[in-house]
Amino acid sequence: MVAVVGVLSGVLGLILGSFLNVVIYRVPAGMSVVAPPSACPRCATPIKPIDNIPVLSWLMLRGRCRSCRTAISPRYPSVELGTAILFAVVAVVFSTGIDELSSNTEIIAWAIELAAFLYLAAITVALAMIDIDTHTLPNPIVLPSYAVTIVLLTAASLVGGDVDSLIRALVGGAALFAFYFVLLLVYPRGMGFGDVKLAGVLGLYLAWIGWGPLVVGGFAAFLLGGIFAIGLVLLRKADRKTALPFGPWMLAGAWIGILIGEPLANSYLTFVGLA
Protein backbone atom coordinates (compact mmCIF):
# COMPACT_ATOMS: atom_id res chain seq x y z
CA MET A 1 0.00 0.00 0.00
CA VAL A 2 2.82 2.40 0.85
CA ALA A 3 4.41 1.83 -2.55
CA VAL A 4 1.12 2.48 -4.32
CA VAL A 5 0.61 5.76 -2.45
CA GLY A 6 4.19 6.75 -3.26
CA VAL A 7 3.82 6.05 -6.97
CA LEU A 8 0.47 7.82 -7.25
CA SER A 9 1.82 10.81 -5.38
CA GLY A 10 4.87 10.87 -7.65
CA VAL A 11 2.62 10.96 -10.72
CA LEU A 12 0.63 13.77 -9.12
CA GLY A 13 3.90 15.58 -8.48
CA LEU A 14 4.85 15.30 -12.15
CA ILE A 15 1.56 16.85 -13.20
CA LEU A 16 1.70 19.62 -10.61
CA GLY A 17 5.36 20.21 -11.44
CA SER A 18 4.31 21.29 -14.92
CA PHE A 19 1.87 23.77 -13.39
CA LEU A 20 4.50 24.97 -10.92
CA ASN A 21 6.71 25.97 -13.84
CA VAL A 22 3.92 28.36 -14.83
CA VAL A 23 3.61 29.63 -11.25
CA ILE A 24 7.37 30.20 -10.96
CA TYR A 25 7.43 32.26 -14.15
CA ARG A 26 4.17 34.18 -13.88
CA VAL A 27 3.54 34.97 -10.20
CA PRO A 28 6.62 37.22 -9.74
CA ALA A 29 5.61 39.04 -12.95
CA GLY A 30 2.10 39.64 -11.65
CA MET A 31 0.55 37.52 -14.40
CA SER A 32 -2.40 35.14 -14.20
CA VAL A 33 -1.45 31.49 -13.84
CA VAL A 34 -4.47 30.31 -15.80
CA ALA A 35 -4.59 32.63 -18.82
CA PRO A 36 -3.36 32.97 -21.47
CA PRO A 37 -2.35 29.36 -22.27
CA SER A 38 1.35 28.55 -22.21
CA ALA A 39 3.25 29.48 -25.37
CA CYS A 40 6.81 29.66 -26.65
CA PRO A 41 8.32 32.93 -25.36
CA ARG A 42 10.08 33.50 -28.68
CA CYS A 43 7.61 32.59 -31.44
CA ALA A 44 4.45 32.82 -29.26
CA THR A 45 3.15 29.51 -30.62
CA PRO A 46 0.74 27.93 -28.09
CA ILE A 47 2.09 24.74 -26.60
CA LYS A 48 0.07 21.73 -27.74
CA PRO A 49 -1.10 19.18 -25.15
CA ILE A 50 1.18 16.54 -26.72
CA ASP A 51 4.14 18.86 -26.09
CA ASN A 52 3.13 19.52 -22.50
CA ILE A 53 3.57 16.04 -21.03
CA PRO A 54 5.86 16.41 -17.99
CA VAL A 55 9.51 15.48 -18.67
CA LEU A 56 8.60 13.17 -21.57
CA SER A 57 7.69 15.96 -23.99
CA TRP A 58 10.97 17.77 -23.29
CA LEU A 59 12.88 14.58 -24.06
CA MET A 60 10.88 13.88 -27.22
CA LEU A 61 11.43 17.43 -28.47
CA ARG A 62 15.10 17.20 -27.51
CA GLY A 63 14.76 20.33 -25.45
CA ARG A 64 13.57 22.59 -28.30
CA CYS A 65 10.37 24.32 -29.36
CA ARG A 66 8.56 22.32 -32.04
CA SER A 67 7.88 25.46 -34.10
CA CYS A 68 10.98 27.66 -33.93
CA ARG A 69 13.49 25.18 -32.44
CA THR A 70 14.41 27.60 -29.66
CA ALA A 71 16.11 25.79 -26.80
CA ILE A 72 13.86 24.99 -23.82
CA SER A 73 15.67 25.25 -20.50
CA PRO A 74 16.31 21.89 -18.78
CA ARG A 75 15.03 23.58 -15.64
CA TYR A 76 11.46 22.85 -16.75
CA PRO A 77 11.76 19.04 -16.66
CA SER A 78 13.98 19.37 -13.58
CA VAL A 79 11.19 21.14 -11.69
CA GLU A 80 8.70 18.51 -12.81
CA LEU A 81 10.94 15.61 -11.85
CA GLY A 82 12.00 17.24 -8.59
CA THR A 83 8.38 17.81 -7.60
CA ALA A 84 7.56 14.19 -8.39
CA ILE A 85 10.42 12.91 -6.25
CA LEU A 86 9.53 15.20 -3.34
CA PHE A 87 5.88 14.16 -3.50
CA ALA A 88 6.82 10.48 -3.57
CA VAL A 89 9.18 10.81 -0.59
CA VAL A 90 6.63 12.73 1.46
CA ALA A 91 3.91 10.21 0.63
CA VAL A 92 6.07 7.25 1.62
CA VAL A 93 7.15 8.85 4.90
CA PHE A 94 3.61 9.81 5.89
CA SER A 95 2.20 6.46 4.78
CA THR A 96 4.36 4.45 7.15
CA GLY A 97 1.95 2.42 9.26
CA ILE A 98 -1.00 3.00 6.93
CA ASP A 99 -1.71 -0.75 6.87
CA GLU A 100 -2.31 -0.58 10.61
CA LEU A 101 -5.11 1.98 10.34
CA SER A 102 -8.26 0.20 11.44
CA SER A 103 -11.08 2.68 10.86
CA ASN A 104 -12.36 4.99 8.16
CA THR A 105 -11.86 7.92 10.53
CA GLU A 106 -8.16 7.15 10.89
CA ILE A 107 -7.77 6.78 7.14
CA ILE A 108 -9.50 10.10 6.47
CA ALA A 109 -7.33 11.87 9.07
CA TRP A 110 -4.21 10.38 7.46
CA ALA A 111 -5.34 11.45 3.99
CA ILE A 112 -5.95 15.04 5.13
CA GLU A 113 -2.58 15.20 6.87
CA LEU A 114 -0.87 13.86 3.76
CA ALA A 115 -2.68 16.45 1.63
CA ALA A 116 -1.40 19.20 3.94
CA PHE A 117 2.22 18.11 3.60
CA LEU A 118 1.94 17.56 -0.16
CA TYR A 119 0.70 21.15 -0.35
CA LEU A 120 3.83 22.20 1.53
CA ALA A 121 5.91 20.21 -0.95
CA ALA A 122 4.29 22.07 -3.86
CA ILE A 123 4.86 25.55 -2.45
CA THR A 124 8.38 24.52 -1.44
CA VAL A 125 9.32 24.02 -5.08
CA ALA A 126 7.61 27.21 -6.22
CA LEU A 127 8.93 29.47 -3.46
CA ALA A 128 12.48 28.12 -3.58
CA MET A 129 12.79 28.71 -7.32
CA ILE A 130 11.13 32.14 -7.18
CA ASP A 131 13.37 33.26 -4.31
CA ILE A 132 16.45 32.12 -6.22
CA ASP A 133 15.29 34.04 -9.30
CA THR A 134 13.94 37.21 -7.74
CA HIS A 135 14.95 37.24 -4.05
CA THR A 136 11.27 37.49 -3.14
CA LEU A 137 8.70 35.23 -1.51
CA PRO A 138 5.44 36.40 -3.14
CA ASN A 139 2.42 37.14 -0.95
CA PRO A 140 0.03 35.45 -3.43
CA ILE A 141 1.67 32.15 -2.47
CA VAL A 142 2.74 32.67 1.15
CA LEU A 143 -0.34 34.37 2.63
CA PRO A 144 -2.98 31.91 1.31
CA SER A 145 -0.77 29.12 2.65
CA TYR A 146 -1.74 30.15 6.19
CA ALA A 147 -5.41 29.53 5.43
CA VAL A 148 -4.80 26.30 3.51
CA THR A 149 -2.48 24.90 6.17
CA ILE A 150 -4.65 25.81 9.15
CA VAL A 151 -7.79 24.44 7.49
CA LEU A 152 -6.14 21.13 6.57
CA LEU A 153 -4.40 20.65 9.92
CA THR A 154 -7.57 21.59 11.78
CA ALA A 155 -9.55 19.07 9.76
CA ALA A 156 -6.94 16.35 10.38
CA SER A 157 -6.95 17.21 14.08
CA LEU A 158 -10.72 17.13 14.48
CA VAL A 159 -11.22 13.97 12.43
CA GLY A 160 -8.34 12.19 14.14
CA GLY A 161 -9.19 13.49 17.62
CA ASP A 162 -5.72 15.01 18.05
CA VAL A 163 -6.37 18.54 19.25
CA ASP A 164 -2.99 18.70 21.04
CA SER A 165 -1.13 18.60 17.72
CA LEU A 166 -3.23 21.46 16.36
CA ILE A 167 -2.63 23.63 19.42
CA ARG A 168 1.08 22.86 19.24
CA ALA A 169 1.11 23.77 15.53
CA LEU A 170 -0.57 27.13 16.14
CA VAL A 171 1.78 27.97 19.01
CA GLY A 172 4.81 26.83 17.00
CA GLY A 173 3.79 28.85 13.95
CA ALA A 174 3.39 31.98 16.07
CA ALA A 175 6.69 31.32 17.85
CA LEU A 176 8.74 30.91 14.67
CA PHE A 177 7.07 33.97 13.13
CA ALA A 178 7.94 36.00 16.25
CA PHE A 179 11.52 34.73 16.27
CA TYR A 180 12.08 35.79 12.66
CA PHE A 181 10.33 39.10 13.28
CA VAL A 182 12.75 39.87 16.12
CA LEU A 183 15.66 39.01 13.84
CA LEU A 184 14.26 41.42 11.26
CA LEU A 185 14.10 44.21 13.84
CA VAL A 186 17.61 43.50 15.11
CA TYR A 187 19.27 43.14 11.71
CA PRO A 188 16.96 44.29 8.88
CA ARG A 189 19.69 43.98 6.25
CA GLY A 190 19.97 40.25 6.86
CA MET A 191 16.29 39.34 6.81
CA GLY A 192 13.30 40.22 4.65
CA PHE A 193 9.69 40.36 5.79
CA GLY A 194 8.93 37.65 3.24
CA ASP A 195 11.15 35.34 5.31
CA VAL A 196 9.20 36.30 8.43
CA LYS A 197 5.86 35.48 6.80
CA LEU A 198 7.16 32.16 5.49
CA ALA A 199 8.50 31.29 8.95
CA GLY A 200 4.98 31.29 10.36
CA VAL A 201 3.81 28.78 7.76
CA LEU A 202 6.80 26.50 8.31
CA GLY A 203 6.36 26.74 12.07
CA LEU A 204 2.83 25.36 11.73
CA TYR A 205 4.08 22.25 9.95
CA LEU A 206 7.14 21.70 12.11
CA ALA A 207 5.31 22.04 15.41
CA TRP A 208 2.51 19.78 14.14
CA ILE A 209 5.15 17.04 14.05
CA GLY A 210 6.61 18.03 17.45
CA TRP A 211 8.66 20.53 19.41
CA GLY A 212 11.89 18.74 18.53
CA PRO A 213 11.31 19.04 14.78
CA LEU A 214 10.46 22.74 15.26
CA VAL A 215 13.83 23.40 16.90
CA VAL A 216 15.74 21.20 14.46
CA GLY A 217 14.03 22.69 11.41
CA GLY A 218 14.57 26.24 12.58
CA PHE A 219 18.24 25.63 13.39
CA ALA A 220 18.91 23.69 10.18
CA ALA A 221 17.86 26.68 8.06
CA PHE A 222 20.60 28.87 9.53
CA LEU A 223 23.15 26.05 9.46
CA LEU A 224 22.57 25.27 5.79
CA GLY A 225 22.37 28.93 4.80
CA GLY A 226 25.56 29.72 6.70
CA ILE A 227 27.50 26.85 5.15
CA PHE A 228 26.37 27.91 1.68
CA ALA A 229 27.30 31.56 2.28
CA ILE A 230 30.72 30.66 3.67
CA GLY A 231 31.33 28.41 0.66
CA LEU A 232 30.55 31.24 -1.75
CA VAL A 233 32.88 33.59 0.12
CA LEU A 234 35.70 31.05 0.07
CA LEU A 235 35.17 30.56 -3.67
CA ARG A 236 35.15 34.35 -4.08
CA LYS A 237 31.71 34.30 -5.65
CA ALA A 238 30.25 36.47 -2.90
CA ASP A 239 31.29 38.78 -0.08
CA ARG A 240 29.79 39.88 3.21
CA LYS A 241 27.58 42.43 1.45
CA THR A 242 26.17 40.05 -1.16
CA ALA A 243 22.42 39.56 -0.83
CA LEU A 244 21.53 35.87 -0.86
CA PRO A 245 18.06 34.31 -0.84
CA PHE A 246 17.30 32.65 2.48
CA GLY A 247 13.94 31.16 1.59
CA PRO A 248 15.37 27.99 0.01
CA TRP A 249 17.35 27.25 3.17
CA MET A 250 14.32 27.87 5.38
CA LEU A 251 12.38 25.38 3.29
CA ALA A 252 15.23 22.84 3.23
CA GLY A 253 15.67 23.17 6.99
CA ALA A 254 11.94 22.69 7.50
CA TRP A 255 11.97 19.44 5.56
CA ILE A 256 14.92 18.20 7.60
CA GLY A 257 12.90 18.94 10.72
CA ILE A 258 9.77 17.28 9.32
CA LEU A 259 11.44 14.14 8.01
CA ILE A 260 14.16 13.45 10.58
CA GLY A 261 13.78 16.15 13.23
CA GLU A 262 12.29 13.88 15.88
CA PRO A 263 15.10 11.29 15.93
CA LEU A 264 17.73 14.04 15.69
CA ALA A 265 16.23 15.89 18.65
CA ASN A 266 15.94 12.67 20.69
CA SER A 267 19.54 11.73 19.89
CA TYR A 268 20.76 15.14 21.03
CA LEU A 269 18.78 14.98 24.27
CA THR A 270 20.16 11.51 24.94
CA PHE A 271 23.70 12.73 24.23
CA VAL A 272 23.45 15.58 26.72
CA GLY A 273 21.76 13.33 29.28
CA LEU A 274 18.32 14.96 29.19
CA ALA A 275 16.50 11.90 27.88
TrEMBL record:
Catalytic activity, EC: 2.1.1.-, 3.4.23.43
Domain Prepilin peptidase A24 N-terminal: 11-93
Record InterPro entries: Peptidase_A24A_bac, Prepilin_IV_endopep_pep, Prepilin_pept_A24_N, Prepilin_peptidase/N-MTase
Domain Prepilin type IV endopeptidase peptidase: from-to ranges: 119-230
Domain of life: Bacteria
Catalytic activity: Typically cleaves a -Gly-|-Phe- bond to release an N-terminal, basic peptide of 5-8 residues from type IV prepilin, and then N-methylates the new N-terminal amino group, the methyl donor being S-adenosyl-L-methionine
Keyword Methyltransferase: yes
Membrane topology: Multi-pass membrane protein
Keyword Hydrolase assigned: yes
Family recorded in the similarity comment: Belongs to the peptidase A24 family.
The protein, known as: Prepilin leader peptidase/N-methyltransferase
Organism: Leifsonia stereocauli
